[in-house]
Amino acid sequence: MTAQRMDVLYPRDRIAAEVDRLGQEISTDYAGDEVMLVAVLKGSFLFVADLIRAIEIPAKIDFVRLASYGSGTQTSGIIEFRKDLEMPIRDRNVIIVEDIVDSGFTLECLYNKLLLQNPKSLKICTLIDKRARREVDIEADYVGLTMDDGFIVGYGLDYDERYRDLPDIHVIEGAPA
Fold it and tell me: Domains in the chain: how many in total?
C-alpha cells in the first residue's frame, strides 16, 4: 500500500471504554460461573488482552488462528485453520473473541466448528461490527463498536502485517474497503 492518509476513527480512550463495558456485560451475564475466551489470532490479541482484564469473573483463554485474507483486502471465502485450540471446550461457557466481523465467513466457520465440540454455551464478542460487507447471517452477542464500511488498521488490526501497533483505530482514506 502506498502512503495513504490515515484518520483516527476510534481513539484509544473510546476503545478502552468499550472494552470495559464489554467486560462488565460478560461478567454480569456469567456471574457465578467461568468463561473461556477463544481469541482469533492475530488481530484480536490486543483486544483480548484488555478484555480478559476487564472481566471480573474467572476466565480462561485459548487461541485459534485462521486465515482468509492473506495480504489482500477481499476475503476468498476459503478458511484455513492454522492453529487449533489446545484446551477442550466441552461443557464450558465459550466466547469467541474477534477483532472485526466483516463478511462473516471466518466467524461462521469457526462458530460451527466449535459448536461440534459441545460447549455449554457459545457466544461471540467482537470489537468492531462492520455491517456493510456481511455476506452470511451471523451476529455477535457482544459488540464494542459498529461501522458501515471502510478499511481500518490499529489496535491489532493490520494491513499486510503493518499498523497493528497503533493504539488508536484509523481508517485509511482511499483504501479498498
Answer: 1
